[in-house]
Amino acid sequence: MDRIALVTGAGSGIGRAAAIRLSRAGLRVVLSSRRADALAATAAACPGPTLAVPADVTDPSAVDRLFGRAEHDWGAVGVLIASAGAGYSARIERTSDADWNRMLELNLTAPFRCLRRVVPAMRARGYGRVVVIASTASRVGEPYLAAYTASKHGGLVRAVAAELAGTGVTVNAVCPGFVDTPMTATTIGNIVQKTGRTAEQARSALEARQPIGRLITPEEVADAVWFCVASEAITGQAVNVDGGTVQS
What we know:
Layout: E1 4-8, H1 13-24, E2 28-32, H2 36-45, E3 50-52, H3 60-73, E4 79-82, H4 97-125, E5 128-133, H5 146-152, H6 156-164, E6 169-176, H7 182-195, H8 199-208, H9 218-230, E7 238-241
Parallel strand pairs: 1-2, 1-4, 2-3, 4-5, 5-6, 6-7
Helix pairs in contact: 1-2, 1-9, 3-4, 4-5, 7-8
């Protein structure tokens, strides 16, 4: 089967690493994020064919246009990696409705819309792989992360995996800890601003929270993504990639 993958958040970090991993495995990869220049950099790093489609997945019409472009140019999407996401940290009483809604819209509603759009064709073909990039914050409670944790712990993956069991379509979540990505760099910057620590001290503090004593690499997360894509027997699972932080 000539498999076509679509990766949201493919402009940097985990999404970029996942796109490269899929390309190396021989899939044609549709790359999507908001920035065309970032997609061009990802495309240049992929060894196989790519199709760059800039899109803001928080826009419902953009999701339809994204999948429509992929189908028009290449055909039905058989592998979806929902990697677009962002973080937010604040005390609960300082979390506004806008902050709350922004986290839910990007981290939960956007993957839901992508799933809703791609599942019918997957079900009809009897083949599909969906991997949502979640977080260890979806496994345990963390202070100051109410909006982010709620958005990553929505239960979407488990419910859809149960619904699609036996159809040839699998749905899984990969749950990274602190990964060496621009998102973590932003977290480090916030720590510096709020605590007066140096960037090196802030980074060391995050590394120390993971038993292996370092940040996870995007490529290690991408390997877990491929693990889920490669198997039909793994579905409805949350795969931790966190250096042993959350044992399950």
